[in-house]
Amino acid sequence: MAKEARIWDYVARNATNEIEAGGWRNSYDGKLFSAEEMREFAEDVYIKLKPYLNKMSTSVMEIGCASGITMFKIAPYVKRYIGSDMSRVNLERNQEKIARENIKNISIVNCKADEISIFQDEKIDIVIINSVCQYFGTEDYLCDVIKKCIQILNKEGIIYFGDVRDADKREEFEKSIEDYALANKIRNKKRSDSSELFLPKGFWKNLKGSYSEIREVEISGKIGSIENELTKYRYDVLIHLKK
Question: Can you tell me the distance from the alpha carbon of 83 to that of 71, in angstroms, rounded to the nearest whole number?
Answer without folding.
Answer: 7
